[in-house]
Structure formats: structure tokens, C-alpha cells
Specification:
2 strands; single chain; mainly alpha; about 55% helix; two-stranded antiparallel ribbon; 15 helices
Length: about 290
């Protein structure tokens, strides 16, 4: 485990991040409604897809192709998760694959420990910059550069929108038994909190718990539970062995919801050229 002497947390710079965590406790004050819960889970699902299909499989690995307008939609969906901009996310992830579980890997649980790999590294100011040399292929798009620079704009707009919807529900559809504050707390704050920690489990847990189908130089694991709560990202050993594949569940029994949605979108020509593992990958799997 590495020394933590250089692992400095910027409290003031992370006030929005900390506020989301504290505001999650407000669910006990604003109360419960099925409307608020459904909103929470729906926005978690949509934004998780923005992370898995957008930030990860498209911007980080380019495992399929799409149009510029849908590329922007993916960036907005990922950005709405409040996990910084698409260029920042992809640059850090490409760096992670280059140095996975080595000292240069800023969120390796083997090198830096569980807490740092799960949440500490995102609060460290030295990790907040975007290395555009890692993402020259996408840094040429001004709309992506704008989202990356003003990465709080979309999450703030979403929080305002959810609150306005809550006002309208409270005023015009009182039978839904919700309020503006309840919708903000459940629909945005709790949903974002769940989104953070389901995403972060891939860094902290998917390199520790699970089985290894392939012999990779890192400690990546396949974990069915993590795959369920991250729409397919838990097949992490598969992914690290062949990161060019759009599907991360290599076999039919490996549930990969992100892949199913992208496959559906490909039928409508919204995305295309979905990359799949070559036959030799399956042969290596059988022999391992």
C-alpha cells in the first residue's frame, strides 16, 4: 500500500460533493412517496446509462460509433451524474487502463487502499485536471469542451428541473402525495448519491472481490452483483482483458443491461459498429 502523505483532500473544493452526501439524510425529514422513489430510481437508471454507455464504453474506449448529436446526448447524460466532464472522465479512465494497479493508477485499491480508491481520489485536487493529450480525439469538439469546463451546469439544471416538477405535482396532481423538496431530495440528491457509490464500486471492489476468467496484469475481477447494480460494468476482468469490446458480459448468462440497450439502439441506426470479442478470446477463456 502506498503512502498517503501526498493524498490531500480539498474540503472547500468539494462542498457540492459533500453536500450531496449530507442531503441524502434529508429523506428522513421530507418523508416517503412512491412518486419520489420512482423518480429517484428512474434518474439513477438514465444517468447510470450515461456513465456506462457514454463516459465509459464510448468516450473512454470508443467501442461503437454514433452521430455527433447522439454523442452530445451521451455526454449530457453522463455529465448529469455530477461526475465531472466527459473529457476528464475519459482521460482518467484511459490513464487507469494504461497503469492499472500500478503506483500511477490513482484509484487502485491494491496500491492506495479501499477508502482512497472508492472516494478519496475524486476529492484530491491533483486529480481534478483534464489531461487533454489523453483525449485528443474528443477534445476537438467545442460542445464537449464546454461541458467539460462547465461541468456543474447540467447537474444544477437537472436539480432545478426536478424541483419544478415537484412544484407542479404538488400543485396540480396532489394525489401523487409528493412535494417540491421531497422530489429534490429523492429525485436528485439521493439518486446522485446512489449513482456515485454504485459507480465507485468498480474502482474499489471490482479489483478485489470476484473471480478471474482471464490472466491480466492487474487484479480485475468479474462480479455478478456489481454487474447488476452498474448495468453490466461488473464483468470487469472481461473488460480489462479485452477493453475494445462494447459488451462486457461475454456470455449470455452475464447480464449486461448497457449492452442490451445499445443493441436496441443499433436496430434503429442510432449507434453502429458495436465491437465484440473475437473468437480467440472465447478460446482463451475455455483454456484458462
Amino acid at each position: 500500500m502506498s503512502s498517503l502523505k501526498d493524498h490531500k483532500i480539498d474540503i472547500l473544493g468539494n462542498i457540492p460533493f459533500i453536500t450531496i452526501h449530507v442531503s441524502g439524510l434529508l429523506i428522513f425529514w421530507v418523508g416517503f412517496s412512491w412518486t419520489a422513489l420512482i423518480t429517484c430510481l428512474t434518474l439513477w437508471l438514465i444517468r447510470m446509462f450515461g456513465i456506462t454507455a457514454g463516459y465509459h464504453r464510448y468516450f473512454s474506449h470508443r467501442t461503437y460509433k454514433t452521430t455527433r448529436w447522439f454523442q452530445f446526448i451521451l455526454a449530457v447524460l453522463g455529465n448529469s451524474s455530477a461526475q465531472l466532464g466527459p473529457l476528464w472522465w475519459a482521460a482518467h479512465h484511459r490513464h487507469h487502463h494504461r497503469y492499472s494497479d500500478e503506483p500511477q493508477d490513482v484509484h487502485s485499491p491494491l496500491v492506495h487502499g479501499f477508502w482512497w480508491s472508492h472516494i478519496g481520489w475524486v476529492m484530491c485536487p491533483k486529480n481534478s485536471q483534464t489531461d487533454e493529450k489523453q483525449v485528443r480525439d474528443f477534445a476537438k469538439y467545442p460542445e464537449l469542451r464546454w461541458l467539460n469546463r462547465f461541468h456543474m451546469a447540467v447537474p444544477i439544471a437537472l436539480a432545478i428541473l426536478v424541483t419544478i416538477v415537484g412544484v407542479l405535482f404538488q400543485e396540480y396532481i396532489p394525489q401523487l402525495k409528493t412535494t417540491a423538496l421531497q422530489m429534490l431530495v429523492w429525485g436528485f440528491c439521493l439518486s446522485t448519491l446512489l449513482l456515485y457509490h454504485t459507480t465507485f464500486t468498480i474502482n474499489s471492489l471490482a479489483h478485489v472481490f470476484g473471480y478471474r476468467r482471464f490472466d491480466t496484469p492487474d487484479s480485475s475481477r468479474n462480479n455478478w452483483f456489481l454487474a447488476l447494480i452498474t448495468l453490466g460494468e461488473g464483468w470487469h476482468n472481461n473488460h480489462h482483458y479485452y477493453p475494445m469490446s462494447e459488451r462486457q458480459g461475454f456470455y449470455w448468462w452475464e447480464i449486461d443491461i448497457t449492452h442490451y440497450i445499445l443493441k436496441l439502439l443499433s436496430w434503429f441506426k442510432i449507434v453502429w459498429d458495436l465491437k465484440t470479442p473475437p473468437k480467440k478470446i472465447y478460446l482463451r477463456s475455455q483454456s484458462s
